[in-house]
Amino acid sequence: MGPPFKEIAQITLLNVRTIPSRLGTSLVVVVGIAGVVGVLVSVLAMSEGFRHTLASTGRPGRVIMLRAGSDSELSSGVAREQATLLATLPGIARDGAGRPLASAELNVMVDLPKKGQTAPNNVPFRGVQPAAFGIRDELRLVEGRPFTRGVREVIVGRKASRQFEGLEVGSHIAFRDSEWVVVGIFTTGGDVHESEIWADAEVAMSAFRRSGFQSVTATLADASDASLAALKESIARDRRLSINVLRQPEYYARQANVLATLIDVLGYSVATFMAIGATFGALNCMYSAIASRQVEIATLRAIGFGGAPVVASVLIESLLLALVGGAVGGGLAWLYCDGASLSTLNFSTFSQVAFDFRVTRGLLVRGVVWALAIGAVGGLLPAVRAARLPVTTALRTG
């Protein structure tokens, strides 16, 4: 016969032409693999969306300053005197009026039910100083107006307003014996702050009976590593300050790590169990295909086709079915999940964070790779069996 590649192409074409006569078993493979890929991509899209939301929060030129030893704002504490000293340190940027771009902030949890539910959820309530709006210049009011300093008014992140009850403009909300009026809705480009409620820091401290802040967020005059190192050195030399300084992206990346890793483990675990079932489905399909075409395969080998082309053709057929299943599963995950909104508990802060699923090109490629792996495993044993079956035995039993 001709070259091996030509033989493989000829046998593969024969295999593909017989798929309609084996439509039922072929669909089992396609649907099974589509399920695996759909679940895997959907769950990983949740992790990707959560990571993206936290990773997109902040800029390299901004820092967050916490009490030494604290790994989150909730466990931190910064006294008023310390906050004042931090704002005046060399290296902190200033606005056009010469005021430091540093905001001492309070971060507490308040209870609100999700829309259509009654169970309370932890929602971040952030008290900010006026400089916060100059530091986070990506913040835009999309509805209403800013809160008035000294008054119990709040502005709410757009994702929080969509996820939780009573956060529409004009609504009155009560927390710990204090009532607040929602006067605006803001967006920050989809980052974690859109899951928060903001108010004047001094009013918030009075309402929640706090005497100090929990963090200081500031813009660096120079975003270089040398400038950051100099700021850290200035803090280390001052015995009144026991403060840890982190760039915002680094801080929020740490916050995202625990939950995102847990979601990844869950996604791969579920997908692995489903993949085992899909592999057995592929095995059954390919064994059935070979059994129904036993005489045909034996005849091909009798007229000179080698065993290797037979193995390759069966594997290619299995991979083609897997590829179709992977494409279907990935397409459905993209159609139904990409951009879908969800809020979940951030284990680092024990607060609800709203985010959007993100079905990226990399996740779709990962799903297709899983599909092809299942197809390869499911097609290998039947392919080897087809190549090893004695010609005379196949013709006699057929």
Walk me through the structure.
With 398 residues, the protein is of the alpha+beta class. The chain has two domains: 4-55 and 255-397, no CATH class; 69-241, no CATH class. The chain is built from twelve helices and twelve strands. The strands form two sheets. Strands 1, 2, 3, 4, 5, 6, 7, 8, 9 and 10 form a ten-stranded mixed sheet that branches. Strands 11-12 form a two-stranded antiparallel ribbon. A hairpin with a 2-residue loop joins strand 6 (172-175) and strand 7. Helix 2 packs antiparallel against helix 8 (248-292) and helix 9 (294-302) runs antiparallel to helix 12. The longest helix has 45 residues, at 248-292. 45% of the residues are buried. The model has no long low-confidence stretch (mean pLDDT 85).
What is the fold's blueprint, element by element?
Layout: H1 4-17, H2 23-55, E1 62-67, H3 80-87, E2 102-113, E3 120-128, H4 131-135, E4 140-144, E5 153-157, H5 158-163, E6 172-175, E7 178-187, E8 197-200, H6 201-207, E9 215-219, H7 225-237, E10 243-247, H8 248-292, H9 294-302, H10 307-337, E11 341-346, E12 351-356, H11 361-388, H12 391-397
Parallel strand pairs: 3-8, 5-7
Antiparallel strand pairs: 1-9, 1-10, 2-3, 2-9, 4-7, 5-8, 6-7, 11-12
Helix pairs in contact: 1-10, 2-8, 2-10, 2-11, 8-11, 9-12, 10-11
Keywords for this structure?
elongated; single chain; ten-stranded mixed beta sheet; 2 domains; 398 residues
Class derived from helix and strand content: alpha+beta
Domain module tally = 2
**β-strand amount:** 15-25%
Main sheet specs: 10 strands, mixed
In terms of quaternary structure, what is this? single chain
Count, helices: 12
Rg computed from alpha carbons, rounded to a whole number of angstroms: 30 Å
Low-confidence stretches: none
Cα shape: elongated
Helix content: 40-55%
The arrangement of helices and strands along the chain is: HHEHEEHEEHEEEHEHEHHHEEHH
Q: How widely separated are the two ends?
A: 24 Å
In round numbers, the mean pLDDT is: 85
Number of β-strand runs:
12
